[in-house]
Amino acid sequence: MRWTFRKFVWLVLLLAALVVTPQIYLHTRIKESQSKEQDCKWLSQPPLVCAHGGDSAKAPPNTEAAYRLALDSQVDCMEIDVSRTLDGVLVTLHDRDLQAMHGNPAVQVGHFTFSQIKEVNPGQKYSEKFHKQQVLTLEAALQYVAPHVKQVIIDAKAGPPNYEDGMAADIHSVVKNVDCHNCVMWAKADRIVQDYMRLSLDPDSVGYVVMKDKVTGKVSDPLRMKGASIVGAFHGIISTKLAKTVHRAGKKLLAWTVDEEEVMLRLLRTGVDGMVTSVPTVLQWLMGSERQQCAISGFS
């Protein structure tokens, strides 16, 4: 009798397993499918691949060579760093790169005239094929780049001697002269952004930067400027919540500067509208790989 009862218990357990296991399996597959669908959601509106100073991992940043490499790989977007010389000429040169060339962390573009900046060799620490590269004016860079990409981001770097004074007006004058309809200007200095908004009157041509204060750890308000439609945020502070907040306000969210594959993958799934990267070909490869994986799973 005891043996029969044991058989009965085992039979009940077996029947229960046969009933429950398919349900668990189905539930798991549904969850996996929903997760994959979420991972592949970006395919409906892929983020812009925006080359940071061109393909600056392979060539001197913000030079014709770096722009050409990025254009040859068919990037969607180009971010150009713009500083102003002592005599007021806008050039595509970052203080950081100038400091590396001089070996002096204190020098800035605004300490030199345009004639002096022209003597700088941005490719001196690269291979010999880049030694003839020159620092470009903003106008020359826009003429070279703008016709071949969906968007150009002008990253305004305020510095001596005039800092924010007149910076927006100078950039707007060049953009207008080149007739750059796909140009966006953004800056970490809100005053430059506000000045540019008054001149441009086009929200789609103006952006502002969101980042975390290095001292206080506080993140700046992602919706603080109503007249600008582009938000450029440091990748480390971007979350799904931030992306939804920006998108609900009718703005686009671009991440900077995204050079690690794991960060690229996370931001793809977060739903950013673009990524500024020094390694655009890596981002393009990753997006291609993810697109293939999504297709295999039935999402395209």
Write the layout of secondary structure elements.
Blueprint lengths: L1 H38 L8 E5 L11 H9 L4 E8 L5 E2 L3 H8 L11 H5 L19 H8 L5 E6 L10 H12 L4 E5 L2 H11 L6 E4 L19 E5 L5 H9 L3 E5 L4 H10 L3 E4 L2 H17 L4
Parallel strand pairs: 1-2, 1-9, 2-4, 4-5, 6-7, 7-8, 8-9
Antiparallel strand pairs: 2-3
Helix pairs in contact: 5-6, 6-7, 9-10
**Average predicted local confidence, pLDDT:** 92
How much strand content do the residues show? 5-15%
Class based on secondary structure composition and strand pairing: alpha/beta
- Name the poorly predicted regions: 26-34
User: How many DSSP helices?
Assistant: 10
Number of strands: 9
The geometry reads as elongated
Query: For the CA atoms, what is the radius of gyration?
Result: 25 Å
| CATH topology type | TIM Barrel
What is the CATH level 1 assignment?
A: Alpha Beta
What's the helical proportion of residues? Answer: 40-55%
CATH superfamily: Phosphatidylinositol (PI) phosphodiesterase
Secondary-structure element series:
HEHEEHHHEHEHEEHEHEH
Q: Roughly how many Å apart are the termini?
A: 61 Å
CATH architectural name: Alpha-Beta Barrel
Q: How many domain modules?
A: 1
Largest sheet: 9 strands, mixed
What does this protein look like?
It contains ten helices and nine strands. With 300 residues, it is an alpha/beta fold. Strands 1, 2, 3, 4, 5, 6, 7, 8 and 9 form a nine-stranded mixed sheet that branches. Helix 5 packs parallel to helix 6. The longest helix has 38 residues. The chain starts with a helix and ends with a helix.
